[in-house]
Amino acid sequence: MKQFKWLALTVVAALFITACSGGKSASDKVELRLRPEQGKTYAVAMEVNSESKVMGMTTNTVMNMEMSMTADEVSDEQSIMSTTYDRMAMNMETPMGSMQYDSDDTSGASGMMGEMMKPVFDKLMEVNLTMTFNKFGEVVESAGMEGLFEGMAGMENMGDQMNAADQMGAATAVFPEDAVGVGDSWEKDIVNTANAPMVMKTTYTVEEITDSEVKLKLMGDIATYEGEDAGAAAAQIDDVSGDFTGDLVVDRATGWTKSANLTQNVQMKMTQQGMPLTVDAVNTITMTSK
User: Fold this and answer.
1) Structural domain of residue 185, as residue ranges?
2) Which end of the chain is more exposed for a tag (fewer CB within 10 A), N or C?
3) Is 220:189 a contact under the CB 8 Å cutoff?
4) Rounded CA separation 34/17 (Å)
5) How confident is the model at residue 166 (pLDDT cuts 50, 70, 90)?
6) Single pTM value for the model
């Protein structure tokens, strides 16, 4: 009988210890801040899949970017990351032809458009881009694209469209000021002017907290961005609307986004040579980092 009581007490004690030291519950709160490891180089891979339709014609584009991002300066308020492109690849299928480019392929680009775009991609492979993130994970400054395509007729604005800072801003988390727990939500407006003057009105929700990761769900609406820094695309596009959903996995200790999946449904209205056009696009962005 004494042995049974001792065994029962042992089981209860073990269960109590497990409950106190185990997985995180909905009542746990975590303060999310971006503090990458000083001096560490993160290998980031992004893939953007896009299907766009205009006047009954469909264009499919797949772009792959592999980057090395080094945390040069890290403080409590900001992180400065230097970024280089390790690989750039693009495959585009249009009703008027196709193009392929891969920086790892020494044979060069294929297709007429590929030959036209090859100098642009080759230039990008030489870029050393600097991005400054604030402690909440927002890209507040980027440098390195200025004048990159100067003198290349019709390509002067490609630096805005190919800027990794805009792509990173869309696929990484922006954190709230207060600590959050499972089920908590917060809202942020994320401006992305890479291909269109748009603002993503984003709602983040904490789905799970573990000892090492925080999993987030995001969703929201897309609207026209009308700021003075809307970029060159603003002169060609009259209106942007849409919605998006996605999920992110964030490293709990550093706030660095380990993986992201985002799907955007976007409609753009524009005027070309006096003719109104509507472009419907579905964009899928995936990112992994290690």
Assistant:
1) 26-289
2) N
3) no
4) 32
5) low
6) 0.81
